[in-house]
Amino acid sequence: MISIKRLDHVAVMIPRGKTAEARAFYGGILQLKEIPGQHPRNATWFEAGDVQLHLVEEDNLPDHISGRHPAFEVTDLEAAKTYLQNKGIEIAYSSVITGRERFFFRDVFGNRIELLEYLQ
After folding, report:
1. Which domains does the chain have, with CATH numbers?
2. Which residues form the VOC domain (predicted)?
3. pTM summary value
4. pLDDT tens sequence across 48-96
5. Looking at the chain, which terminus has fewer C-beta neighbours within 10 angstroms, N or C?
6. How far is residue 101's CA from residue 60's CA, in Å, rounded to a whole number?
7. What is the residue-wise DSSP string for 35-76?
């Protein structure tokens, strides 16, 4: 069983070398507050209410499976992992983020989805 608490963040891919333009738009025009720090994949993170927006530079290759994804906070990550594996869903891991456990999987269309649980 998966018990989703809330949408945690959305990762949006931007072209390589365009982080400054993305900061000007999301931080300047949209006035989102940037979250400082060294984030996975050199991403730039912003606060959008109680949801985060993660901007990640990515090559736009036709045969590339994108890193775009929603991330859902769950109440029991281990139970969610067991449930998905029992359904034949392949689990993948990525870089470590302090204070969170997480994993990724793909939906039937190849879209990436992250489930995470904050550590207490």
Report:
1. 4-118 (3.10.180.10)
2. 6-118
3. 0.72
4. 889 999 999 988 755 667 788 999 999 999 999 999 999 999 999 988 8
5. C
6. 28
7. E-S--GGG-EEEEETTEEEEEEE----TTPPP--EEEEEES-
Question: Given the DSSP bridges, would you call strands 33-35 and 44-48 parallel, antiparallel or unpaired?
Answer: antiparallel
Scanning the structure block, which residue is given the tokens 């530079």?
57
* 3-class secondary structure, 34: strand
Q: Are 14 and 22 in contact (CB under 8 A)?
A: yes
Q: To which residue do tokens 């989805």 refer?
A: 113
- ∠ CA 1-69-30, nearest 5°, is 125
- Give the separation between CA 114 and CA 92, rounded to whole angstroms: 9
Instruction: Compute CA 95 distance to the chain's CA centroid, rounded to the nearest angstrom.
Output: 11
